[in-house]
Amino acid sequence: MTVRTADYPTLLNAFAADLSSLQRALAVLFVTMLTAAAAQVSVPLPFTPVPFTLQPMIVLLGGAVLGPRLGFASQVLYLAAGIAGLPVFAASPVLPQGIARLLGPTGGYLMSYPLAAFVTGLLAARGLDRRYFTSVIAMAAGLAIVFACGVAWIAWGPSSVGIGRAIAAGLVPFLPADLLKIVLAAAVLPSAWWFVGSRP
């Protein structure tokens, strides 16, 4: 499948046209590092093995700014760093670092990040990030992927607790806060486009 985004440049391209390969790689690395940093802002909850983190917001914003391909790459790089054993996943007294984290209850969320960034980036690259309401839609689409993969993994992955318990543990406690986060974060995108358009 060919992804055509030329009609609507990404924010990254709008801020700096004609980026070199090195500059694109550095932008990808920067979002990867932001994702890892957001994982460290982690609040464990007593009633679920899934901690509360700022990662989904960074994943979605990163995808929107970088576009589908680079957004996808930034999250693949994040997962590769985690699989290699670097301490990029959320700190946890019970969940291990390394590839074993992907097999645990939070694995579905983590493995969804490349796809969520790609979809949000694709929608943004087609112009949905230029207005507030459509920015919310683009980010909500990515968030839906994160939750769908995360809940499905809890329900039918190695833990296999069933869909009812998975929704109670992996969706209900986080949905209000994550929706609030994207409602706030979505304002960044049209504001950035306004700034780009107002530059001399």
Q: What's the structural blueprint in terms of helices and strands?
A:
Blueprint: H1 11-15, H2 21-40, E1 42-45, E2 48-53, H3 55-66, H4 68-83, H5 100-103, H6 107-125, H7 132-156, H8 163-170, H9 175-185, H10 188-198
Antiparallel strand pairs: 1-2
Helix pairs in contact: 2-3, 2-4, 3-4, 3-6, 3-7, 4-6, 6-7, 7-8, 7-9
Describe what this molecule looks like in 3D.
The protein has 200 residues and is mainly alpha-helical. The protein has a single domain (11-193), classed as Arp2/3 complex 21 kDa subunit ARPC3, CATH 1.10.1760.20. Helices cover 66% and strands 5% of the residues. It contains ten helices and two strands. It has a two-stranded antiparallel sheet. α2 (21-40) runs antiparallel to α3 (55-66), α2 (21-40) crosses α4 (68-83) and α3 runs parallel beside α6 (107-125). The longest helix is centred in the last third of the chain and has 25 residues, at 132-156. It starts with 10 loop residues before the first helix and ends with a helix. The model has no long low-confidence stretch (mean pLDDT 90).
Structural class: mainly alpha
The number of domains is: 1
What share of the residues lie within helices?
55-70%
CATH architecture: Orthogonal Bundle
Offer a few descriptive terms:
200 residues, 10 helices, 2 strands, Arp2/3 complex 21 kDa subunit ARPC3, two-stranded antiparallel ribbon, mainly alpha, 66% helix
